[in-house]
Structure formats: structure tokens, C-alpha cells
Amino acid sequence: MIFTxxxxxxxxxxxxxxxxxxxxxxxLQGSNSGNIRYANNAVSTSGENSxxxxxxxxxxxxxxxxxxxxxxxxxxxxxxxxxxxxxAQLAPENPEYMPILGPQKYSSSNAFFKSTADxxxxxxxxxxxxxxxxxxxxKLKAAGFLQHNAGFQSMLNSKGLFAYHPSTDVExxxxxxxxxxxxxxxxxRGYNDxxxxxxxxxxxxxxxxxxxxxxxxxxxxxxxxxxLEPAAxxxxxENMFFNMDARNxxxxxxxxxxxxxxxxxxxxxxxxxxxxxxxxTHPELPTATWSGDGRPLExxxxxxxxxxxxxxxxxxxxxxxGAKSIPMPNNAIMEGGNASLEDMIKNTKRGILVTRLWYxxxxxxxxxxxxxxxxxxxxxxxxxxxxxPVKNFRFNESPIIxxxxxxxxxRPERVVSGESNINYILPPLKVRDFTFSSxxxxx
Length: 443
What we know:
By secondary structure, this protein is of the alpha+beta class. It is built from ten helices and 21 strands.
């Protein structure tokens, strides 16, 4: 269920009227979502889901308790408040507890689209059919998942802080294989506005790769120039995004750490062409403009011209270090160039085109060394053309080393990470000396 801003405020105000705690925070959120899943060119499941939940956090000094409920009559609201207060009285003190924030100013972000909120079961079926029917005609097998969501999140606390954010989103992914199971292709799309989604066009890319990746040839592992499509870039760089925490860096547990309790803020870490920032008001990737603890989210540069500019931190840690309190962002955007993927292939004498990577695991957190596998279309490039498909590889590489070996960046696009289902805006990257350590028989 989706409440309007006024409805959400009225419910949360009722909750606060029941509170006897020193401090009280109320979070109310809800969503309406729909999905359709298919495999072997046939729909297997389709459904809709509606949820609403209210979370109350009560604090007595540094002791806190949390309780959740999905009923909104007065008796239920009072019950959840009492439960959170009882839990708080039983809890030990949290030495890192921070007093709640007062009213804040938030920027505006347009993340709600009626087209997505009104998307019907028939439209879902049509979107799936646009992927399934062409696959059948080409004697290929498609498996995909489409999910759309409309929802809201809101917060009100006993110091008068209020925040409300409505949003919509859609995610679509499809994997296509040939009948023999020797070729595989993949495509994914993510938007706030579902009218931008064309499942037929995305599926066409996956079908082409499934046909072209059959009869893969084994070549020797080693260091190669690679062109990483945005889906492959995402699963590598998000391991960097998720580890830009100031506390981990200060305590020596991060690739951002230096000896003596120092960090790499202000130092050149990667190629000077690299610029990475977050912006909740970005028109192609809008998000909520406030964090879970109520801090405003603003446009923030994390790496600028290769130099580390900021790390995010909890309010406690920022105060402890006398540093700027920057919350963890809701999105990440990497600037790129103007070249298309086809242009980048034409400019490559010899290299490997990688559609996507999966099964990513950490090898060394201090250097961000990662391992994983290529999949769904890996091709040899020679003299500016795709020569033939190659067997998949296991890689061992750090995104930090990768961003120091940049040769070219393509046109950025919104992409869904196959590992975390988080959306980013990232360019395809051409990288030299990318390390493939062994072959994989997986398709």
C-alpha cells in the first residue's frame, strides 16, 4: 500500500503521541510490486505483492529498542510503541549511540513515474512475450525476470525531523541459450520510468550473443587487453563503492588505509581520467535524498581526476574524528567518453570482449583483489573485429589496478549489477593487462 505524504505524516504523528521515551523515531514504508518470470520460453510465475510496515525506535539514554508492525489502528500503534520501549529498557547501553537529528532540508528528486505505478498484468505479459516469441522463432531458449515496483519511504522523529520519498523502478534481465547449450547471451535493463523499457531490444542483444558465442575456442590464460561491458564493470566497481567507509580506512581494514592510522583521502589512487560521484537528483538515476538516519544526501565526489576526495562515515565516527559527516550514497555514477561499444571494438588490435562477470569473491581486502568468472558471451577481438567466441575464464584482478590500466572509456549507461541488483551509471571500459588466471568450461 502506498500512503500519500499527508497520510504518512498523520500516522507517524499518532505514534509519537503514544511515546514516553527520551527520543523516538518512526519509519513508515510501503510498496506495490508486480513480477513475471519465464524459462524455456514459457512463463513459470507471475504475481503482485503489496506491503506496508511501520518501525518504531525508542531510546532511553543510550538504550534503544525497535519494534515493527503492519496494522495502523490506534490500539496497534500504541502496542508497537510500548513494545519498542520495553525492549529499550531491557537493552544494554550503546556506547556509540548518537542523539537523533532535528529538522533537515532535503533537495528534491523525481523518482516516481505513473507509467510504472500503473503497469498492468497484461502489460507484463506483453513484455515477456516480446522476449519469448523471437527466441522461439530463432530456436533459442530464453529465461528472464521482470519486476516493477511503486512505493514510498518516510520518517518522523520526536525532534521534528520529517522526510518523505515516493519512487518507482523496474528491473529486467534475460539470459538466452542455444538449443545445444553451447552458447549463451545476457542483457539487463533498469529504469524508474518503465516506458523506457524495451524487452524486445534487450532480448535481441542476448539472442545475438547466444548465437555468436557457440563453438567457443580455448585460448591461453594470461594478461589481455579487455573491453568490459557496463554489466561487467558494475560487479567490479561496486566492490570499491561498498568499501569506501571512513572507519574501516581509519582502523587499517581497507584498501583506503595507510600506515599510522591515516587514509588515502587527497591522494591520487587511479588514472586521472576517473571521476566517480553520487547524486540522488540525477535525472537518469534518481533516489531518495536522505539517508536512513535522516542525514541529507547531496551530490558528492568520491574520486575526482583520479584523486580520492571523500569517504562516507556514520555520524558517530565522523564526530569521533572531527570529520565531515557524509552518509553512504544511494547511487554511483562514473563519467566516461563518447565512444560506443562498437567504436571501442574497432579501435582494438587484439583483446577480449567481456559481456559480464559473476561469482565474484574477495581474495585480499587490502588491495581489493577479486576473483570470478566470465559468462554469457566472451569473444576474441582482432584487428577491430570480433573474430570468434572464446571459452570462459577465471580472472584475478583488483578494480584499483584496473582503473590504473585504463586505455579508453565509452559512453556511460544505466546498468543493473548482476551480483547485487543495484543500479549504476557506468561506461564500458577498455583496460590493458587484465589478468585471466585459468579457463572455465561453464558457458
